[in-house]
Amino acid sequence: MQIRAASDSSVVAQLPSNTLAGRHQFTVVSDGVKSNAVPSDVATVTAEPIPVMHSGSTANVVLYVEGVPQQDSPTVHFTVSGAAKLASGASAADVPVMHGTATVRIRGVHPGQVVVSYQLHASLLGPSGLSQ
Amino acid sequence: MKHWSGGSAACAVMAWMLMSPSVGMTQDSSTYDSVGNAMSQAAKDFKEASRQEEIELALEVAASSLAVAPAYLHFDALVCAPWLTITDNIIKEYMSRVLKGDAGAWSVVDKAYKLKEKLAAVCDPHEAGKPEPDPKPPIVNPPPPPPDPTPAEKQAQEVDKYCALRCKPAYDAWKAREAEREALDKQLIPLIMQAAAQGKKYEMDPSDKQTYDHAAALEKAAKAEYDACVHKCYEQAVGAGLISTIPDMFSNGSPRPGPQKESSLAPPAKTPTLGDGSFKSIQPGPLDATGKSQVAFLPPIAGKGSSILAMVTDPNEGGPYGVVVGTVDENGKRKFFKGVTDEAGYLALLLPVGITALDILKVDQNGTPTSMAHTNVETAVHVPNTEPIPTGQVPSHGPAITEASPVVEQGGANQGTVVLHTHRPRTR
């Protein structure tokens, strides 16, 4: 890992790009003293291409998530803007990852660029993670 | 058309300007050995007050080795630093003897100057036209760089680079003063030689002596300024936990001398600072406009007066990078500063008192700044996008992680980073 930023109370560290997906443990060492080890899920996320859309047409946005076990409650927060909206008419939705897949349906509303952003969330406070 | 973006944390991503990348250096082992051996001998002779002839011989051998060295030869600054220091010390000592009337000492000075010219041709990265500054203070017997440094050694190397870069203005000021003093040395040559030829002791004209003494004092003050800068930089690196101790070469027991206080000696101009860092205060404008592909990292939270390690990278360009830093004080007043990272993109700074937020900014073509990375100073108890670690798993002594990213997405908008909320309980 490489330290990217640090202060007296927080650290940002970048994982090597070849880090395997799955559960990892992280510690910090200060003056030769090692901290507690904390778990974190390293995930890889890939997206299926979105088909060409027209005003009024719908399409699925499919994300494949690897590395986050189901018991860590992986969820993807989708945000859609530009030439499309979610099929529900909203601009954002939280979608649980089921069997490594998160899918959301979008609808074209006018010609132009469709911008789909996502943020992967999980919680390690469940049985497999941090609870004692 | 469609566009994907995403990730598990909101890390700012933006572009910025670049400066020249470093240039690789080569060194020839046989020349290195012969010059190194000769310089070691010169240092030994000088230290043990050996006969002048022995010192001259060592200087001649080193110069001869360099004279027949291949044209491509280029020594790393770390290797050259002790050689240049030995040569400088010999020049100073024997020049002082010359000025006291020992015309015979000039022979050593002359040989040392000739060697120094040869060394400057293959060593000194601060000479004009050399793009990669590496202002190392005098070092004795530098170890060869390890082929595969440990993470701690890598960190120490980054600190070395940062301190060298941060203190470069002071180094340049020192070297400029040194060059002025050396120019005066050389003006004295014909006068000294003329006096020696006449069998007389050279007596310096009082006004010339005043000029010379003034130049020497300015050089000494500039050197002290540089020493103090380097020492302070390493002190802060220790304080920030980047390295465990100040390197021996910078911590010789007594504190490094500060600038001379004589009224006739104006210390080298200081760059305006952000806290104790070398930053220039600016009001962002179109001339500060940045590129579009940079990524910046700041710690999400920090305590008052904390040392901060930040980083800027650019997938399209190498470092060092210019950086615009913004601060917000307790009254909501914003200030902007411009600084520069080291070659690897790292930037260290000490938070000024009264700061509540720190940003690394991108500046658009209109001069409008927007944040690429943000630090809350003493205003947040929770780090966004992290989960608390159960109290029972947090040690009560020593370093501890109290919050951590539950998930890290490889290659996402947060660049595959894990964020840790840390603290170090005071145990004394």
Description:
- The complex is a heterodimer of chains A (132) and B (428).
- With 132 residues, chain A is mostly beta strands.
- Helix content of chain A is 0%, strand content 53%.
- Chain A is built from no helices and 12 strands.
- Chain A has a 5-stranded antiparallel sheet with strand order 3-6-7-11-9, with no helix packed on it. Chain A has a 3-stranded antiparallel sheet with strand order 10-8-12, with no helix packed on it. In chain A, strands 1-2 form a two-stranded antiparallel ribbon.
- The model of chain A has no long low-confidence stretch (mean pLDDT 90).
- Chain B is an alpha+beta fold and 428 residues long.
- Chain B has 7 helices and 14 strands.
- In chain B, the strands form 3 sheets. Chain B has a 6-stranded mixed sheet with strand order 2-7-6-9-10-4, with no helix packed on it. In chain B, strands 3-5-8 form a 3-stranded antiparallel sheet.
- The termini of chain B are far apart.
- Chains A and B meet through strand 1, strand 2, strand 4, strand 5 and strand 6 of A and strand 1, strand 4, strand 5, strand 12 and strand 13 of B.
List its traits.
heterodimer, A: 132 residues, mainly beta, Immunoglobulin-like, 3-stranded antiparallel sheet, 12 strands, 0% helix, elongated, B: 428 residues, alpha+beta, 6-stranded mixed sheet, 36% helix, disordered N terminus
Strand content of chain A: over 45%
Q: DSSP helix count of chain A? A: 0
**Overall 3D geometry of chain B?**
elongated
The total count of strands of chain B amounts to: 14
Low-confidence stretches of chain A: none
Alpha-beta content class of chain A = mainly beta
Main beta-sheet annotation of chain B:
6 strands, mixed
The strand line-up of the biggest sheet of chain A is 3-6-7-11-9
Total number of strands of chain A: 12
The whole-angstrom Rg of chain A is: 19 Å
CATH superfamily assignment of the largest domain in chain A?
Immunoglobulins
Distance between the termini of chain B: 61 Å
Number of domains of chain A: 2
Q: State the end-to-end distance of chain A.
A: 28 Å
Written as H for each helix and E for each strand, in order along the chain, the element string of chain B is: EHHHHHHHEEEEEEEEEEEEE
The tally of helices of chain B reads 7
**Can you tell me the overall shape of chain A?**
elongated
Which fold name corresponds to the CATH topology of the largest domain in chain A? Answer: Immunoglobulin-like
Chain oligomer state:
heterodimer
